[in-house]
Amino acid sequence: MFGRRRGPARKAAGVRAGSDALVLDGVGRTYRGGGVVALHPVDLVVPRGRFLAVMGPSGSGKSTLLQCAAGLDRPTSGTVHVEGVAIGSLAEAELTRLRRERIGFVFQAHNLVPSLSVGENVALPLMLGGATDGVGARAAVALAAVGLGDRTDDRPAELSGGQQQRVAIARALVTEPAVVFADEPTGALDPATAHDVLTLLRQAVDRDGHTVVMVTHDPYAAAWCDEAVFLAQGRIVAALGAPDAERVHGVMRQLGAGRTVVAA
Ligand SMILES: Nc1ncnc2c1ncn2[C@@H]1O[C@H](COP(=O)(O)OP(=O)(O)OP(=O)(O)O)[C@@H](O)[C@H]1O
To answer: Looking at the domain assignment, is residue 166 inside a domain?
Structure first.
């Protein structure tokens, strides 16, 4: 919700907002008839207005968790609630609608449509949802919020990689979703541009009350979050409140060495 002010920049770990944006209850995912366990049943609660980092070594199940939580994949066990809606019980058409209207996505490859203008790319989720009134104005507000209000008519190819990622963030936020899922949003960016993108995500949480779940390998990116959870071999094995890069790095180092980490 644009303009709705929130409290301090960093919310204390464990503080629960009035209701939860995302709840995973025993969510697991296996492949090949159960032969490959990508995600053991995990529980996770993300209150509204929280910025969460999901971390872990390669193959630990981060993308699987994100895909199940975002309704892009159906878990083999457990339930996912987005703003109180059990998404597993939705028919495919309802799930598509929920994804379009209540969930925002930011990927490493920003997936903008090259033939559409920047403004049209941002307006796309609204138009796909059937909105007609005020679409251009809402897209303009979202673009201005990421500092690109003057680039509406440009094509994505005319923008730098970092600017394109900012457009992707505007597109993810234009529907004012319950949760934004970001999968390595800074993975392809230089440190200064990554800083800009993380500033925008942090601002979306603090200024506008959005909820962001971000998969990242980067301890410095995780340090922008209110909390970091760590996966190893398909299980959540640790969590850090108010993570700083050094502590995140320490946990990652231990996980890389295959040691069990006690939740901090
Ligand atoms: N479609 C699939 N079929 C079989 N196994 C899969 C499939 N998708 C993922 N896996 C397995 O599930 C495990 C978790 O994969 P996932 O992609 O979630 O890990 P990740 O932590 O996101 O890794 P990375 O950081 O390398 O992207 C891996 O062992 C992977 O090989």
So the answer is: yes
pTM score of the predicted model: 0.89
Does a structural domain hold residue 215? yes
Name the pLDDT band for 218 (thresholds 50, 70, 90): very high
Compute the distance from residue 64 Cα to the ligand 1 centre, in Å.
6
For residue 213, the cross-strand partners are: 52, 181
Ligand 1 center from residue 57 Cα (angstroms): 11
> How many domains does the chain fold into?
1
What is the extent of the structural domain holding 88?
20-256
Neighbouring residues of 258: CB distance < 8 A, sequence distance ≥ 6: none
Is the pLDDT at 33 greater than 70? The verdict is yes
Residue at 12 is within a domain: no
Domain annotation covers residue 264: no
Residue 29, ligand 1, Cβ within 6 A: no
Please indicate whether residue 58, judged by its CB atom, sits closer than 6 Å to ligand 1.
yes
CATH code at position 136: 3.40.50.300
